[in-house]
Specification:
By secondary structure, the protein is an alpha+beta fold. It is built from 2 helices and 7 strands. It is 30% helix and 32% strand. Strands 2-5-4-7-6 form a 5-stranded antiparallel beta sheet, with helices on one face. The longest helix is centred in the last third of the chain and has 20 residues, at 100-119. The radius of gyration is 17 Å and the shape is globular. It starts with a helix and ends with a helix.
């Protein structure tokens, strides 16, 4: 039974890490009242794409009545959450779309499940 739990944890880690090959990411920025186009809020085929990175990043911030969204292609990314905004990281092609946040939540949920299973020993 312990071996099955170890395999489960390793599989969940592999899902969270993804592969380390070059990927493509949406690349745009949006600022309420400054940027006329909302194409960065929900990327479409018209949204610019950058390639050659290992992570996609999406940042969101809201302060003083302004909302900013930035999507980019980066080599290093760290997820951060503050009272005014958040940074999300992912490692799949165009994973920094509007639906990209759910992948981070799925990975978090899987890690929490693995932790609970390991604590039962």
């Amino acid at each position: 039974m312990a071996a099955a739990r170890v395999l489960l944890v390793l599989a969940l880690i592999a899902v969270g890490i993804g592969h380390v090959s070059a990927i493509s990411c949406y690349s745009c920025s949006y600022v309420t009242g400054v940027t006329d186009t909302a194409v960065c809020q929900a990327p479409t085929s018209a949204t610019s794409v950058s390639t050659g990175c290992t992570s996609c990043m999406k940042t969101y911030a809201k302060a003083s009545g302004y909302e900013t969204i930035t999507r980019s292609c980066v080599s290093v990314c760290a997820e951060v959450s503050t009272s005014v905004g958040s940074t999300y990281c992912c490692s799949g092609d165009k994973c920094n779309s509007a639906k990209g946040i759910s992948a981070s939540l799925l990975t978090l949920g899987a890690a929490m499940l693995a932790f609970r299973l390991l604590r039962r020993e």
